Amino acid sequence: MPHTLALIALLPLVGFLFNGFFATALGRHRANERAAGIIGSAFPIAAFALTIKAFLDLQAGGFAPIVEPLYRWALIGTSSFEIAFYFDRLSAIMTLVVTGVGSVIHIYSTGYMHGDKSFGRFFAYLNLFLFFMLLLVLGRSMLVLFVGWEGVGLASYLLIGFWFDDLTNAKAGRKAFITNRIGDAGFLLGMFLLYRAFGTLDMDTINSAFLSGTGAALLVPASLVGLLLFVGATGKSAQIPLYVWLPDAMAGPTPVSALIHAATMVTAGVYLTARMSGIYMMAPEASQVIAIVGVLTAFFAATVALVQTDIKKVLAYSTVSQLGFMFLALGVGAYGVAIFHVVTHAFFKACLFLGAGSVIHALGGEQDIRKMGGLRSKIPLTFWTFAIATAAIAGIPGLAGFFSKDEILWYAFASAKGGAPWLWGMAALTALMTAFYMFRLLWLTFMGASRMSHEVEHHVHESPISMTGVLMLLALLSAGGGYIAIPHFLEAQIPLPPIVESLEHYEHTLLYVSIVLAFAGLGLAVFMFGGPASRPEGIKQAMLPIHRLLSGKYFVDELYERVIVKPLAWFSEVVLLRGSDKMLLDGSLNGLASLAQRTAGLLGRAQTGSLHLYALLVMVGIVGALLWSWRHV
Amino acid sequence: MSEFTMGPMLLNLVLWLPIVGVALVLLLARANDGLARTIAAAVMTVQFALATVLYLQFDATAAGLQFATQLPWIAQWGVSYLIGLDGFNILLVVLTAFLGPIVVLGAWTSIKKDVPLFHVMVLVLQFAMMGAFVAQDLFLFYLFWEAMLIPMFLIIGMWGGARRVYATLKFVLYTAFGSILMLAAVIYLVQSMQQSSGVMSFAFADLYQTQLPLSVQTILLGAFALSFAIKVPMVPLHTWLPDAHVEAPTAGSVILAGVLLKMGTYGFMKLGFPLFPDAARAFTPLLMTLAVISIVYGACLALVQTDIKKIIAYSSISHLGYVMLGLLSLELVGIQGAIIQMVSHGIVAAGLFLLVGMIYDRCHSRELAEYGGLARLLPVYSVFFMIFTLASVGLPTTSGFTGEFLALMGAFTAAWPAHLDGNNLPLVLASVAVTGVVLGAMYMLRFALTFLFGAVKAPHHSPDHPLLDLSLREKSILGLLTIAVFALGLFPDGALQKTELAAKSYQSLVTTSRTPAGSAGVTP
Amino acid sequence: MDKVHLLLVLSGALFALGLLGVIVRRNALVMLMCMELMLNGVNLSLVTFSQQRGDAAGAILVLLVFVVATAEIALAIPIVLLLVRFKRSMDIDRYADLKG
C-alpha cells in the first residue's frame, strides 16, 4: 500500500467524523451506543493492525526510514511545506504504543462509559485525539508535528471538559489548553528560528544539519532553539513551571486520564526532545536545563503525591513525577532510555488509571481513598492488576518499571553528557517516595478494613469483561514490558551517551541500591498504613506544616493566580479599558467634540437673527474689501 | 466571444451586478420585503459564482493586471476608469463576493424595518467595496473608498441598536477625518508627479514610478497611513470599532469585520507602502510597534469585555495586528501570511458575528453573564461556535493558523538577522506578538467557557419555550463558512500561488529606494 | 461733468439708496423693492461702461441680471406670502428664529 502511514493517521479521523456526525445526531439509544462503540474502537484497532504492517515493512527494509509525502501544504518562494509522514525506529515505537494502548483503552471505554448520555460524543473525541496524536508521532515536518501537538491539546481540552455541565470540569479543560498554549508559544519561536536557518521544517534534515555542524546550523544557537522547544515540551509534558494543568485534568473521564494524561499525549514532549536529539546533542546548556528541570519536577511532584487523598490525583502527580524522570534521561543524553520509560510507563500507568477507573466504577463515582479500603476481595481482578502495575512503577525487580527506571538512574549518575551524582541522589530519593506513595495508595484502597458507607459497599461489583480484560492485558505488559530492549533497539538510530569510565564499576552497587529503595518504600508504606489508623495520623500531626504545604501542592496555583492571572485581569480592566480606552482615547475625543460644541455656541451668538444687521455687516465688509484693494492694488 | 474579450466583461459584471440589483429592488420590490430579499440574495449569489469563475481563470503565473478594463474618464486630469485583478486583490474580491450572499441570508429574518431600503444599502455597499478592491486608478479608488462610508453609515444609523447615533457619528467622524487627509495627499502626489515627469495620471502603475524626497514621502505616507490605520483599526485609533460593531445590526457587523476592515490593510499593501517605499521603511519600527501593541491591547481588552459583540470586536483589532506585522516584515512568508490572515479573519469574524447575531435574535441580550450551558441547549449551534472559536484562536487545520503562523514566521524571520546586526527591536516585537497566541486562547476560551458550558442559562429561555437550535438557513450559512475555514487551513497552497507574484512585487516595490537622485533621502 | 460721469453717479446713488433701504426698512416687500433698486443701479453702470467701451459684454450681463432678478422675485414673493400667512406680519424683525 503506498499510503500506509497516512491511512494509519486518517482511520481514527474517519471514526471521529462518523461518530461526530451520526452517533451524536442519533441520540442515546441502546443500539446506537453499541454502534458508536464498535465503530469508535474498530478504527483504532485497524490503525494498530496497519502500524504492525508498517513496522514489518520497516524491518524488511532494514530499518531505513520510510518517507511518505501526502501533499504540499504551501510553497512560499523556495521553501516548501510538505505534509509528509516519516517512519523510523522512534516513530515506530511511538505509533505502536499510541495505537496499541489507544485501542485497548477504546475497548475499555465501551464498558466504562456505558449508559453515558453522550456516549457517541465521547468516542468521537477519543478518535479525534488519536488522529492528532498519530500526526504528532508520524509527521516528518515540525509543521505536521505541531498540527498534532495543538490538535491533541484540543482533544484534551474537549475531553477534560467532557462533562461540561459542571463548570469546574470545563474550567480544568480551559486551564489545560491555555497552559499548553504558553508552551506552544515557545515552541513556535523555536520553529521560527529553525525555519530562518534552514528554510525547511523537516526534522530529519534539521537533525542531520546540526549533527554535521556545518552551514546553516551555525546561524542559530542550538541551545536557544533547544530551550525554546523545551518550553513547548514543559507545557505538553507537564514539567515545572507549566505542570499545573495536569492534576486538574483529572476532571475528565478516567479512560481519558489513562490514554491522554498518562500514556500518550503527555509524553509528546519527551518524543519531541528525542526526535530533535540532533539539536540537543549540540546543546549541552539546554540539556543541562532539561535534566535539572526534569529531576526537580520528579522530586516535587512525588512529594505532593505523598499526601493526596484522591485516587486520581495521586496518579496524576505520579505521572508528572515519572515524566520528570524521562526528562532527566533526555537531559543526560539517554534518549533511548527516556523512550523506554515512555513505553513502560504507558503500560503500567494506563493499567493504574484504568484500574482506578474500575474502582471508581465499582464504587459509583467515589474517588476519595479515605473512603475506600478492603476492596481486595470484592473486586479481585482489579486488585491483582493494580497491584502488579503498582509493583512495576515502584521498581520491584523483574517488572517493567524496574528496568527503565534503573537505566535512567544509572545514566543520571554516570552519563558523560551531564550525568552527576546529585542528579542520581535526587532521582533515587524520588524513586523511594514513588514506591512509598504507590503502595500507600494500594494499601488504602484495597487492603485493611472497609471505610465505605454501607450503601456504597452494598453496590460494589467487579467491572465487565471489556474492562477487566484490558486490565489483565496491561498488567501483563507492565510485568513483561521491561524485557523489550528499546534502548538497544533505538541505539542504531540515536546512540546512548558514553559512560564516565571512572564510574563504570558502580553499576552493580547502584542496582542494589535501587532494589533496596523500592522495597524500603513498600515496607514503609505497609508499616504506616497496614497498622492502626492512628499511626499515619500521628506522623501527620508531628509534621503538620509540611503536610499542609504538600497537600496544598506548594500553593503554586495560588501563586500563579496572584502573580499572573489577577494582575493581567487588573491591567486589562483598569489600565487598558478604563484608563486608556475610555478615559484617554474616548475622553480626549469627547473632549474635542465638546470643545467644538462650545466654540460653536460662542460663535453662534453673532447670529442675532436680524436681517438688517446682516445686511449692514455685508455692506461694511464690501466697503472694507474695496478700500483694502484700492489701497493695495 | 473569445476568452480575451470575455474576461474584462466578467470583471465589470462582477463589479456592477449589485447596482443592477439596486435597480431591480427599486423597480420591482419597493413595497415587497420578500421579493427584495430574494433579489438581493440572487444577485449576490450570481456575483459570487462569477467571482469564482474569475478566481479559477486567474493566471497565477502572469504578472500585471488581468481582466483589466481601461476607459478614459477625465482625460485632462489623467483619470481613467481602470479596473483589473492582480494578486493583491484576487482573494479579497472573492472574499467580498463570498460574504455577499451570506450577509443577505444572515439578515433574512433579523431585519424587519424598511427591508427593501436595507437591501439597497447592502447592495450599494457591496458595489463600493468591490470597486475599491478592483480599482487600479487612485481617483477611482478614492471615490469608492468614500462611497463605502455612506451606506455603512445608514446601515448602522437606521437599523442599529440603542446608541446607534453616537456610534455612527464616531464612525463617520473618524473615517472622514482620515479620508480628508488622504485626499490632500492624493492631490499633492499626482501634482508632484506631473511636475517631475510631465505625466498626469492617477493609475497605480504610473504612481509606483514616482520619485519623491524622503521628507515629502514621510508627510504623504503619514496622511495615507492615518486614513488606513483608522480603517484597520490600529491602536490608538480603534475606539470607533467596538461602538460601531455593538450598535450595528448583524449584517453590518459582518460586512464591517469581514470586508471593511480589510480596506485598511489592503490600502497599506497596495498603496501606502509601495507608493512611498522609503518612508515606509523609515516608519516600520513605529508601525510595527503599533501593530504589536494592537495585538496585545486588543487581546487584553477582549479578555475583560462583558458584551459578547465587543469581545469579537476587540479580537478583530488583535487579529489585524498580525496582518500589519506580516506586511511590515517584508519577508515573502510574512506577506503571504498577511494576505491569508486578511481572508481568514474575514471568514472567521463573519462567522462569529453571525453566531452572536443568531443568539441575539433568540435572546435579545448581548451580556455574556446572562448565558451559560448553551452546549446542552443548542448542540448544533455550539459545534459551530466551537469551530469558529478555534479558528479565531488559530488552531492548526483552520484558516486562522495559516495566517497567524505565516505572518509571525515572517516577522521572526526578518527579526533574526536584524538581531544579529544589533537591532533588537524587531525580535522583541516578534516575541511579544507571539504572546498574542496565548492571549487569543485566553479570551476566546473564556467566552466559550461562560457561553457554552456550566448550568443552562439564557434570557427568554424556559423549559416550556426552549430556544430553538439552528434553522436550515442558519446551518447552511455557517456550513459554507466552515468549509472555507478548513479549506484555507488545510489547503492554502492554491490561494498562496495566486498571490505569490503580488507579494513578490510588493516586496520589491517597498524594498527599492525611490528618492530622486542626489536628494537627502537616499538610504544606505 | 460729462454724461458718463453723470450716469455713473446716478447708478451709484441708486445703489446706495437701495442699500440704505435694505438696511433701514423693516417691511419685507419694501426691502425686496430696494434690492431691485440696487440691481438696477448696477445695471445702469454696466450699460454705461458697455456704451463707453463699445463692448457688448456689459449689455449681455445686464440681460443676465434681469433673468436672475426675475427668478429671484418669483421665488421671493411666494416666500413673503408664506411668511405673511405664517405670522400675519411683514415685519422682518419678527422672523428672527435663526438667532444663534
Describe the protein.
The complex is a heterotrimer of chains A (633), B (524) and C (100). Chain A has 633 residues and is mainly alpha-helical. Chain A has helices at residues 4-26, 30-60, 89-112, 119-138, 142-160, 167-198, 203-212, 222-236, 245-248, 254-263, 268-275, 277-281, 284-305, 311-331, 335-362, 380-394, 400-414, 421-446, 454-459, 465-480, 486-491, 507-530, 534-542, 544-551, 556-604, 611-632, and strands spanning 66-76, 79-87. Chain A has a two-stranded antiparallel sheet with strand order 1-2. The radius of gyration of chain A is 31 Å and the shape is globular. In chain A, 55% of the residues are buried. The model of chain A has no long low-confidence stretch (mean pLDDT 89). Chain B has helices at 3-28, 33-57, 90-106, 115-134, 138-147, 149-159, 164-197, 204-207, 214-231, 240-247, 250-275, 277-304, 308-329, 332-363, 374-377, 379-393, 399-420, 425-452, 472-490, 493-511, and strands spanning 66-74, 79-85. Chain B is mostly helical. In chain B, a hairpin with a 4-residue loop joins strand 1 (66-74) and strand 2 (79-85). Chain B has a two-stranded antiparallel ribbon. Helix content of chain B is 74%, strand content 3%. Chain C is mainly α. Helix content of chain C is 79%, strand content 0%. Chain C has helices at residues 3-24, 28-53, 57-87. In chain C, helix 1 (3-24) runs antiparallel to helix 2. The termini of chain C are far apart. The mean pLDDT of chain C is 88. Chains A and B meet through strand 1, helix 5, helix 6 and helix 25 of A and helix 12, helix 14, helix 17, helix 18 and helix 20 of B.
Report the major sheet of chain C.
Answer: none
Fraction of helical residues of chain B: over 70%
Tally of extended strands of chain C? 0
Structural class of chain C: mainly alpha
- Fraction of residues in β-strands of chain B: under 5%
Write the layout of secondary structure elements.
The complex is a heterotrimer of chains A (633), B (524) and C (100).
Chain A: H1 4-26, H2 30-60, E1 66-76, E2 79-87, H3 89-112, H4 119-138, H5 142-160, H6 167-198, H7 203-212, H8 222-236, H9 245-248, H10 254-263, H11 268-275, H12 277-281, H13 284-305, H14 311-331, H15 335-362, H16 380-394, H17 400-414, H18 421-446, H19 454-459, H20 465-480, H21 486-491, H22 507-530, H23 534-542, H24 544-551, H25 556-604, H26 611-632
Antiparallel strand pairs in A: 1-2
Chain B: H1 3-28, H2 33-57, E1 66-74, E2 79-85, H3 90-106, H4 115-134, H5 138-147, H6 149-159, H7 164-197, H8 204-207, H9 214-231, H10 240-247, H11 250-275, H12 277-304, H13 308-329, H14 332-363, H15 374-377, H16 379-393, H17 399-420, H18 425-452, H19 472-490, H20 493-511
Antiparallel strand pairs in B: 1-2
Chain C: H1 3-24, H2 28-53, H3 57-87
